[in-house]
Amino acid sequence: MKLKILTLVSLVLLASCKSDDGGVQDNNPYLTNPIVNLTLNLNLPQYDPLKFPGNNIVISQQGIKGILIHNVNNDLYTASELSDPNHIPNSCSRMEINGIILSCPCESDDNEYDVVTGQHRTKNNVYPIQQYRVVRTGDVIRVTN
Predict the structure, then answer these.
(1) Taking CA 17 as the corner, what is the angle to CA 15 and CA 18, rounded to the nearest 5 degrees?
(2) Is the pTM of this model over 0.70?
(3) What is the pLDDT of residues 45-72, one digit of tens each?
């Protein structure tokens, strides 16, 4: 009897696990899900801004239009895709950073997003910024998806 209960509990626990570690899937039809795998050593001078809250850097070599990595408070970092999530990537869809606001320079829209939350600043019925997982261990920051 104990074996049956243990087996049942194990099956329920396994069935409740998610393959994406609980990450948000927004099924954005405009953006692909590129493979992102970055390791940033904060001891290197090019990543020095990430040692201080409120600072950020742009990594152009990965993501769709690049990735913005932002230090919120030395414990929390965000990594945001620079391609505007609410239209197909094109020549003007690479967003620009101004403080903690990402804005799309395309003339046809006024899309602005909060870097920390990823949400659009004024509209509720639009896709949020595509964000990647960020983990800091000591002086190393890992960005993956």
Answers:
(1) 120
(2) yes
(3) 999 999 999 999 999 999 999 999 999 9
